Here is the input.
Amino acid sequence: MSADQKVAVITGASQGIGAALVRAYRDRNYRVVGLARSMQPSTDDNIHAVSGDIADRRTAMAVQRYQMISSRRLSMPARAAR
Here is the structure.
């Protein structure tokens, strides 16, 4: 993984369009932060799974902490959740 690898944050990432977006961004070598209320951990080291509702402040803070810890800048937010 290079230091300039782009990061996409995708809501609704556990199923449907959101899950398809996760796969599409990974196919393009993005690191992905996947959020969903029913998000399960991933075996892919380039997918950071966050279980929770993005409207909940704690969930948003978890994404922000990941970004700070990993020293990554957000490249592409994608909203697939309703």
